[in-house]
Amino acid sequence: MVQKFWQCRDRSIDLSSPKIMGIVNVTPDSFSDGGKYYSSAQAIEHGLQLAEEGADILDIGGESTRPGAEEVSVHSELERVIPVIEALSARGLVVSVDTSKPEVMTAAAQVGAQIINDVYALRRDGALEAAEKSGCGVCLMHMQGEPRTMQKNPVYTDLLSEVKSFLAERARALTDLGVSAEKIVLDPGFGFGKTASQNFELLAKTEDFLSLGYPLLYGMSRKSSLGAVTGITKAEERLISSVTAHLLAVERGASIVRVHDVKQMKEALTIYK
Ligand code: 7PM
């Protein structure tokens, strides 16, 4: 049986019913020319709105790990995410930081982040140690390759067993440092170094991943693989695909869904219950 709680620093998240992680991007370019203060104010506002709509966790990201994205410096990532994490945590909300950089993990935990969400699964130098010291809950995600190039030519001999053994190895690396298994959640990494059909195989086999013994998180919101089967090319128009895919993942055993459209996901989960 998979644990019913996610232990995250001073909070314990009840996983006996599915939980929603709302996506909060802090990307200066996504906002008009209002400067740094303006973009963090907008992100805080967005986070508060998602919390009101039913998000259980707010995932704050400074865009360093997005597929196709260029690297962002530690300095600018801190500048983007820290004020937002601090403000939302101060309101008593559960905040996760979407980062691969140990410096950002440490600083985020110091201003109240309860969770580290790392698409590199703590493979960067110093990341395992930073996560351990932070006391945060951790989401470990599978990715083949690097965000800039991973979609070029994903190759697997056996997709399921490769993703599973990677996740088991990363969880083991963390527990070997003394981190309690109750702090760990695993994510097969939909869209990260996989073709559309490989992504759908991960969704079909959600139950298989439960044998790893950890709660599962799925993040498929608006992703291009959904568009690859529906023909919907605009990301913002993939709402029904996103809600459907996440509901299927939950039905097959996932505990947490990471989504842009919190209100609609909440509505779907209300019917699911
Ligand atoms: C373009 C494509 C921009 C994809 C951004 C994305 C995941 C994640 C992301 C996930 C976990 C997005 C993604 N995806 N963290 N961060 N799982 N744990 O949709 O699937 O925001 S970035």
Description:
There is one protein chain. This protein is α/β, with parallel strands linked by helices and about 270 residues long. It is built from 10 helices and 10 strands. The strands form 2 sheets. The protein has an 8-stranded parallel sheet. Strands 1-2 form a two-stranded antiparallel ribbon. Strand 5, helix 3 (about 100-110) and strand 6 form a beta-alpha-beta unit. About 50% of the residues are buried. Bound molecules: ligand 7PM. Ligand 7PM binds near residues 67, 139, 219 and 221. Ligand 7PM binds near residues 66, 187, 190 and 217.
Task: Write a concise keyword list for the protein shown above.
alpha/beta, binds ligand 7PM, 273 residues, two-stranded antiparallel ribbon, globular, 42% helix
Protein topology:
Layout: E1 5-8, E2 11-14, E3 19-25, H1 35-53, E4 57-61, H2 74-90, E5 95-98, H3 102-110, E6 115-118, H4 127-134, E7 137-141, H5 159-176, E8 184-187, H6 196-204, H7 206-209, E9 217-218, H8 224-230, H9 239-251, E10 256-259, H10 262-272
Parallel strand pairs: 3-4, 3-10, 4-5, 5-6, 6-7, 7-8, 9-10
Antiparallel strand pairs: 1-2
Helix pairs in contact: 1-2, 2-3, 3-4, 6-8, 9-10
